[in-house]
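Onboarding guide, step 5: your first structure request.
Type a short instruction followed by the sequence, for example:

Predict the 3D structure of this protein.
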Amino acid sequence: MLRNLLITLSLLLSGPTALASVTYQTADEFLQVAFSGAPPEAALIWLTGKHKQAAEQILGHPYSTLRIRYWRRGARSAWILEEIGKEQPITVGVVIDGQRIENIRVLVFRESRGWEIRHSFFTDQFNAAQLNQERQLDRHIDGISGATLSVRAMKKLARLALYLDAATRESDVSAAP
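The system replies with structure tokens like these:
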């Protein structure tokens, strides 16, 4: 009995996400901020052909869905993507403006470790990042001790969002009013 009580207390005190997912910001809230209160209609990109191959190359595995919803107004786009940290998906929102990351936020964190990636001391490192020719970020992102897998997931999602923005930009911008 005492052992079970100690295990329960240990789980409760071990971190903010030990027992359940934590939503830091909803998708709607993220989009309201990204587009100053008036997000555009969502569009879709299908992960087929070269886009599927590129996503697999960036992530190291196939993306979990065949289509990804995104929002675009002019050169500004917003992406809500998911990647597994250690065992559970991490939901991230990425705003790209002018082919550079303007903002990246952890929206929902479901892992028991690595939740520190939600803080601005980490996410601010991505500001103004872009992809180089090898589809890598153009800057080094410092990790966080104990959050290696969460850090990797964020870096992969940043790269994927930048790739998808570039893949969709020309047709969307030319069609925009």
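Each response can be followed by summary notes, for example: Helices lie at 2-13, 27-34, 49-59, 120-123, 148-175.
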